[in-house]
Specification:
- The protein is α/β, with parallel strands linked by helices.
- It has a single domain, classed as FAD/NAD(P)-binding domain (3-Layer(bba) Sandwich).
- Helix content is 23%, strand content 18%.
- It is built from 12 helices and 20 strands.
- The strands form 4 sheets. Strands 1, 2, 3, 9, 10, 11, 12 and 20 form an 8-stranded mixed beta sheet that branches. The chain has a 6-stranded antiparallel beta sheet with strand order 6-14-15-16-13-19.
- Strand 4 and strand 5 form a beta hairpin.
- Helix 6 packs across helix 12.
- The protein is globular.
- The mean pLDDT is 96.
- Keywords: FAD, Flavoprotein, Oxidoreductase.
């Protein structure tokens, strides 16, 4: 029997960066907030002295249990979609902090070009630069409109940076803390890329260079460069995450209650309003209705889209007719790059998730695309994130993947190989989208989300162009052997590539173009908000978290406005 609980002002579905920011801002404004998190409670004390690569990096202890819920995948509509049984291409987080616990901490602002990509591309290259199969569109707000929210997120998280990116949008303030250490490796990249005409700068980092107290009074410590960031929680409280910033801020108000092991399976709707959510206690199996004046979907890209679909809210995208917006504009990230093998050894086992040197000369529209068969580009970087022995086995081409020679090269090259890579932008294509699977269900009886995705000609051209440039940098750095990444072929759900999934619940200027407006308020249901990287209409050449954080602060502002006046915010 379903139990109905007392009504609250706001309920969030997920307690990561987005849910934490919404909770903190709304609770500070006096609203009563409940945050429903299907994973467990956890924090800094749980990670102390546990540098366990096998547990966290190989067996994914902080990630979603695919035996309970997964997605189905296919490359195109003619294929049968099958469930993803093991985490591979991307890693879905679960538990307090979500992906904000196991992230690397690389924190960029998307370029002004990203937000007005259709207008700017057509103005410079004409309307036929890409075919009509690519669904590029302006976002519904500009970089300048979002800049104050970027600034707020960076102050909350204490981001460390040098502010030397000449291609970035205008900033109202410098980074809150100085850049991280420029190691010998990074200096080598800086010298080589500068000699080739690029403009390197230190990567903006949520692994802080010094202790910092944010405007809400939360303490963030200084990074120890231990190399256990990605896929790990930080034992020092030095990698900024929701559980050491926005969640404590929300909790201190007395207006926020996080609930764990609470898996939301439906957004409850009555007429043109939502009235709350239905969730299942994953320990006891009990079912609950949590009524709320405002519902905010703050879980990961996949789950936000899925909840709207199973709740029958919005019009599903149909690739045949082009109608509908829910599930449209799914994008991933393209990973061009090259590897270099050197004679000298480096301390590659030391580092931090966002310790890196990068440049944007090949990102956005910062270079001429007139004679190229793609738009946008990639942030190119050398990062020193801390290589680990189980998952790092650098070998030369044509080397067996097991046996004596494999072991010999793995040991030899562990501290003698470096990678220069790009985070390549991904453009939406009419055949890449999210939908509901009509065969498979999760352990709660809810249909699985289905992903239809493959690399496009745009992706392949971008990847080839940037990979060659990465190889040129490694040659300039003095590598004795340079191996450029192979050309893209078909996308595969394995091996790991990036957890930078975007789209499906796109923000837009009009209801005909997207799911939510520029306050992330649902176009059809004004007391429903959907916030996350699903709001991106294209993916940039950067990590998405900084832009997700900025959108979360704008969304929180919208929710507070709505709580006072109601109605559409645009």
């Amino acid at each position: 029997m379903v139990k109905t609980l007392p009504k609250v002002d706001v309920v969030t579905v997920g307690v990561g960066w987005t849910g934490g920011i919404i909770a903190a801002e709304c609770a500070k404004a006096g609203l009563k907030v409940v945050g429903l998190e299907r994973g467990q409670k956890r924090g800094t004390s749980d990670y102390q002295q546990i540098h366990d690569e096998y547990r966290y990096a190989i067996r994914y202890d902080l990630m979603q249990d695919l035996s309970r819920e997964t997605i189905t995948f296919r490359n195109n509509r003619k294929m049968k979609a099958l469930p993803m049984r093991q985490l591979g291409s991307f890693l879905l987080g679960e538990g307090l902090g979500g992906s904000g616990t196991h992230w690397n901490g690389q924190t960029f602002r998307f370029l002004p070009y990203d937000f007005q990509i259709k207008t700017m591309t057509e103005k410079k290259y004409g309307k036929n630069k890409l075919s009509t199969d690519y669904l590029i569109q302006d976002w519904g707000l500009t970089y300048d409109e979002l800049e104050p929210y970027f600034d707020t997120f960076e102050k909350t998280t204490g981001i460390s940076g040098d502010g030397k990116n000449k291609h970035g949008g205008k900033r109202s303030n410098p980074y809150p803390t100085p850049a991280m250490k420029t190691t010998p490796l990074l200096k080598k990249f800086e010298k080589a890329s500068g000699k080739l005409g690029y403009s390197p700068y230190m990567m903006p980092s949520a692994n802080l260079s010094e202790p910092y107290k944010n405007p809400d009074g939360e303490q963030i410590n200084a990074c120890q460069y231990c190399g256990f960031c990605e896929r790990f929680g930080c034992e020092y409280g030095a990698k900024t995450s929701p559980e050491i910033t926005v969640v404590p801020t929300a909790t201190k108000t007395g207006n926020f209650e996080p609930r764990f092991h609470a898996n939301v399976v439906e957004v409850v709707k009555k007429g043109n309003k939502v009235t709350g959510v239905k969730y299942i206690d994953t320990i006891s199996g009990e079912e609950f209705i949590q009524p709320a004046d405002v519902v905010v979907l703050t879980s990961y890209v996949m789950n936000n889209a899925k909840l709207l679909m199973v709740s029958n809210i919005g019009e599903m995208y149909d690739p045949t007719t082009g109608k509908g917006t829910l599930g449209r504009n799914y994008c991933y990230q393209i990973l061009p790059g090259a590897s270099g093998f050197f004679d000298e050894q480096y301390n590659t086992f030391m580092g931090a998730g966002a310790l890196g040197m990068c440049f944007d000369d090949l990102n956005g529209d910062n270079f001429d695309h007139s004679d190229l068969k793609f738009i946008h580009g990639a942030n190119v970087a050398l990062t020193q994130t801390g290589t680990r022995p189980i998952g790092t086995n650098p070998i030369l081409p044509d080397t067996p993947t097991w046996g004596a020679e494999f072991k010999k090269q793995s040991i030899e090259n562990f501290t003698r190989s470096l990678g220069v890579g790009g985070q390549g932008a991904s453009m939406p294509h009419k055949e890449n989208y999210l939908s509901l699977d009509n065969v498979y269900k999760d352990s709660y009886g809810v249909p699985l989300l289905q992903m239809t995705y493959n690399f496009t000609d745009q992706d392949k051209a971008l990847h080839k162009h940037i990979s060659k440039k990465c190889g040129d940098i490694l040659k300039e750095m003095g590598a004795k052997t340079v191996v450029v990444n192979s050309d893209l072929d078909q996308y595969n759900i394995v091996p790991y590539q990036s957890t930078h999934n975007t789209g499906g619940t796109v923000m837009s200027l009009t209801p005909e173009e997207g799911v939510v407006n520029n306050y992330l308020q649902h176009w059809d249901v004004d007391n429903l908000f959907v916030v996350g990287a699903g709001n991106f209409s294209n993916n940039s050449g950067y990590n998405p978290t900084g832009t997700v954080g900025a959108l979360s602060y704008r969304c929180a502002e919208g929710i507070i406005k709505y709580s006072k006046k109601g109605g559409s915010l645009v």
